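Action item from last week, closing it out:
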Amino acid sequence: MHKQFENSLLKATGAKGLDSEELIQSLWSGYGKILRCTLQGGNIPSVVVKIVQLPKGSKHPRGWNTDIGHQRKLRSYEVEKYWYENFAKDCSSKCRVPKCFGIDRKEDEILMILEDLNQAGFPLRKTYINWNEITICLQWLAQFHAQFMQRKPQGLWHIGCYWHLDTRPDEWNIMDDPLLKKAAKAIDKKLSECKFKTIVHGDAKLANFCFSEDGLNVAAVDFQYVGGGCGMKDVAYFLGSCMTEQDCEKREKETLAIYFESLRKGLSNTTINTNELELEWRSLYHVAIADFHRFLKGWSPGHWKINSYSERISRLVCNQLLK
């Protein structure tokens, strides 16, 4: 970490010095790194810093080294910076996110100084979760969507989620699925033109949730693709990241019931017509599955998330929309 960023870190946290830096992970395609910094003095023992280094070119692990991909990635970090500066503070304890202590910039580098969720009581990252933990995450998503219901995504992605069709023309072009390719724009239009819109997380996979030791609370990270849209996109994507295709199908009614019960509670003090909202969004759940399936078929045709359930749902959606 260069001197300007170190000084910004100490000033933002009130620390006297920087004790150690631990690499948590490198950012996708070589765009920087995430560090845990242990601090000397002050009231904050440690923070997590995200250092984004904006290269002129990129090395994508799947070979997507196009200018479109590069510009999308650059925009994603500007969006995340704006999110932490202007939106994150509005998240309640029911949709916990890291506090942002400060942001700095030096030429093509961005520094985000964030709360260490390990210290805040969310030290666990999971690759498998049980039904209770799935419920906790669905409730987090519902409360997050309720918090930002009908709020304009000013400064964020106009349409959130990293697989949004307008940002993925290369993947659409090479897709070897004529029916899904033909229906892609209709799928996107159906989701994007819904009456009830919120701000979606945009990458709500299991890996971006941090759990408390007792498994009763959760917080979320990684807001590069946060933006406007239908909440079903987050729900469909999350469930596909942590449940088998058999469970996704078998427990669909249960998972949606949990989500909408929590969403209604989150909107109980608003004038939103929750009956109308639920009716609309339930009808879009399968459309959201088809939307992500469309992305995968172009981006990584052999991906493990492409399965008979998402294939069957996508066929049904395509046939309905292309009538």
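Closing note: The chain has two domains: 3-115, 131-321.
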